[in-house]
């Protein structure tokens, strides 16, 4: 099987504007492991790669198609459609990018490992997502949709007390998110959305206390299999700060694990056409699991699930089987190993030093020096015989990387 893979951060999606080093690290990590999994299946892989990245000869085992911008990338995808058996799009929902690219492939008659474009559209609008979940009895935070410009006035109608969360209506991760703890921060939260996102609308949501987790699921469009509960390490900042996803760990043992699985499965079943890999973000509160988001795409937890010592089989092949063959594993049995992964801020790397980092096992994504910045970001992943050991080894790996640099 010949497969086309497009990852937005690495494939020219941000060539005409700045991509954050952290977003690039996550994107490259998912791309690298996705391609490795497909190659292990015996697939021929064509990868759309930004020209600025391809000149570093990144450690990906596919055939590169170099592009200079997102328009080039779209044309490359179109041209490749006549020569591939299937495709996989790894892209954010923001601005309708994921939906548009998957819809394009569907129109060209190319099978994808992605969810159906209509399902992507259904969950990408976060307010539509919450309304659908609520109608179907799935627990979600109290949520209100407001106009960014009129947000301060419309808050009275929502009736929120402090603290609450303001976030974009189609964001990913923690992009644009602010935790508002008082009146003095309200204007700044809406201003952040207005300056960073195109949409006139945003989401205001109650702030929930609890453990931030995600559930990774394999879906056929008809059947759903919860795969793993994943710990999430996130930074939730005020409007003046930057909220971000830092990393995670899996499998994460928690007394609410099975309840989280049931809740995530119920959330996915609210939407027809979710296929392949789907991630559901939740908060495990004292009152039980509450759904924050449904991600109709590959998420960074895939890095942990790609660790052969943790899962024991080719997880990318399981995604392909779910999406194309409507086939799920009979059960998920973990090996007893644990994986921790994290982004690491680094100094800007010398070009000659990248080759050394390519050979460091724990470095899934090196800090590519493609930005006009004095810093970079790497993605590091380690395995351990327990969660505590893996977290300890992750700290050691971070320290070794920084010492090396």
Task: Describe the model.
The protein is of the alpha+beta class. 35% of the residues lie in helices and 28% in strands. It has 14 helices and 16 strands. The strands form three sheets. The chain has an eight-stranded antiparallel sheet with strand order 13-12-9-10-11-14-16-15. A hairpin with a 3-residue loop joins strand 9 and strand 10. Helix 4 runs antiparallel to helix 5. The longest helix has 20 residues.
Strand elements, count: 16
Q: State Rg.
A: 20 Å
Question: How much β-strand is present in the residues?
Answer: 25-35%
| Sheet with most strands: strand arrangement | 13-12-9-10-11-14-16-15
Round the mean pLDDT to the nearest integer and report it: 92
Tell me which oligomeric state these chains represent: single chain
| Amino- and carboxy-terminal Cα gap | 40 Å
Give unreliable regions as ranges.
Answer: none
Number of helices: 14
Counting helices, strands and paired strands, the structural category is: alpha+beta
Based on the model shown, name its key terms.
405 residues, alpha+beta, eight-stranded antiparallel β-sheet, four-stranded parallel β-sheet, 35% helix
Brief synopsis:
This protein is α+β, with helices and mostly antiparallel strands and 405 residues long. It contains 14 helices and 16 strands. α4 (97-107) runs antiparallel to α5.
List the helices and strands and how they pair.
Blueprint: E1 2-7, H1 21-40, E2 44-50, H2 51-54, E3 63-67, H3 70-80, E4 86-90, H4 97-107, H5 117-124, H6 126-135, E5 143-147, H7 151-158, E6 164-168, E7 178-180, H8 183-196, E8 201-206, E9 211-220, E10 224-235, E11 244-250, H9 257-268, E12 275-285, E13 288-295, H10 302-305, H11 308-311, H12 315-325, E14 338-347, H13 354-358, E15 363-365, E16 375-384, H14 387-404
Parallel strand pairs: 1-2, 1-4, 2-3
Antiparallel strand pairs: 5-8, 6-7, 6-8, 9-10, 9-12, 10-11, 11-14, 12-13, 14-16, 15-16
